[in-house]
């Protein structure tokens, strides 16, 4: 409660700047989950349809498979009386039909029990596209290492077969110690 009382002394513009800088996407919602305000650090995101989310219910702005998560977060935020919800990944939809992953947490900003229309929630989102791109690069690198490993194994198998079946005597000698490392059956 001490931290909350200290936040009351912070002017609203400073608090807006902090929220804006802390989240990639910020949605201000009414008590029914209708998007009242959209703020995004990525201006291209706003231009590609995020501004059009205003006036829609938040669940209308996401892919159908993540709508249940939205309902759960909104209910959890209402029930927790100001405590933010746990972070959940939601696939946010853009105007062109494409989607992108966002990790959201929701908190109740104001709760006027007498007038549900005055209730305000805030959804703080972290754009997961950079994380997904990094994961994709990691998977691609792992696949490349695996392909190289199997190419090496195939080459080694061919070398062994040639080495073992050669009718000429073949010795593999260490150049520094002059020790024989391998000899084929013909040797």
SSE blueprint and pairings:
Elements: H1 2-7, H2 12-22, E1 25-30, E2 35-40, H3 43-47, H4 67-79, E3 88-93, E4 99-110, E5 120-127, H5 129-165, E6 171-173, E7 180-183
According to DSSP, the number of beta strands is 7
Helix content: 25-40%
Sheet bearing the most strands, described? 5 strands, antiparallel
Mean pLDDT equals: 84
Number of helices: 5
List low-confidence stretches: none
How are the strands ordered across the major sheet? 2-1-5-4-3
Approximate shape: rod-shaped
Helix/strand-derived category reads alpha+beta
User: How do the SSEs run, as a string of H and E?
Assistant: HHEEHHEEEHEE
Describe this structure in words.
By secondary structure, the chain is α+β, with helices and mostly antiparallel strands. Helix content is 39%, strand content 24%. It contains five helices and seven strands. The protein has a five-stranded antiparallel beta sheet. Strands 6-7 form a two-stranded antiparallel sheet. A hairpin with a 6-residue loop joins β6 and β7. The longest helix is centred in the C-terminal third of the chain and has 37 residues. The mean pLDDT is 84.
